[in-house]
Write a structure and sequence with these properties.
Elements (H helix, E strand, L loop, with lengths): L2 H10 L1 H7 L9 H6 L7 H16 L7 H11 L2 H10 L4 H8 L3 H8 L4 H9 L1 H12 L3 H11 L3 H18 L2 H6 L1 H28 L2 H6 L3 H12 L1
Helix pairs in contact: 4-5, 4-6, 4-7, 5-8, 9-10, 9-11, 11-14, 12-14
């Protein structure tokens, strides 16, 4: 097949071509082919391919390092494709899949390209809250903390999330269930409280560093001498 024929196939069947290269033994040609196909690949098909890659990692396929491939495919993609996937991530499903395989690195890659409101949408979505429930039930505190911190950076939003989650649990659980799971949920809300307090401490330190007394202490002797001369004048 000559170059012109290859381009014609890429243009007409971009998704099918790349999907074929996710099967053994062709994975080593996937990224090389992707470089030639971006101009023809619709954003929604890019999203589908990412999900296929994640599902292969979840299903335990060993014929390729699919988590590494995911990261490479993400980093190489055009900004328009990234933006489409991030918008789709508002449902929380792709990030939730990555959490299943404890893939913090690729979650960070996705969320660092997202705006603050977009990151918040991920965890405030029904799927995002369900993910928090699942991580809590399975006692995966480290992943839960990571997920919350990656999605929420504001104290006020953290408080809002905590209150919404309380209402969700009360609405979805019977009194008997709430009593039985009281300790578990206490730990969950304590985690949120700890993150809220951490934000307070951070703000306090920042305010302290910017206070007049703190700024005076940080002045060099040369700056102080210069200031004295000004006051003398």
């Amino acid at each position: 097949m000559n170059e012109e024929q290859q381009v014609k196939v890429f243009k007409n069947y971009p998704y099918k071509v790349l999907k074929c290269f996710l099967d053994w033994p062709w994975q080593s040609f996937f990224m090389e082919t992707a470089k030639r196909i971006w101009a023809f690949l619709p954003e929604e098909d890019y999203d589908l391919l990412l999900r296929i890659i994640v599902n292969k990692a979840i299903d335990g396929y060993k014929d390729c390092n699919y988590q590494k491939l995911f990261g490479e495919f993400w980093q190489q993609s055009p900004i328009t494709h990234k933006e489409y996937v991030i918008d789709e991530c508002a449902s929380g499903s792709l990030v939730s899949k990555l959490l299943q395989i404890k893939d913090k690195e690729n979650i960070k890659l996705i969320l660092e390209n997202a705006t603050t409101p977009e990151r918040e949408k991920v965890i405030f979505s029904d799927k995002g809250k369900s993910t928090c429930e699942s991580l809590t039930y399975n006692d995966k505190r480290d992943l839960l903390k990571f997920f919350v911190q990656e999605c929420i950076s504001s104290k006020d939003i953290m408080i809002k999330f905590k209150e919404e989650f309380k209402k969700r649990i009360i609405r979805r659980c019977s009194e008997e269930t709430l009593e039985r799971e009281k300790d578990m949920w206490s730990k969950f809300f304590q985690l949120l409280d700890d993150l809220i307090q951490k934000d307070d401490k951070k703000r306090g330190m920042e305010e302290g560093n910017s206070s007049p007394a703190k700024r005076l202490c940080s002045l060099t002797s040369e700056q102080l001498s210069s200031s004295k001369e000004i006051f003398k004048g």
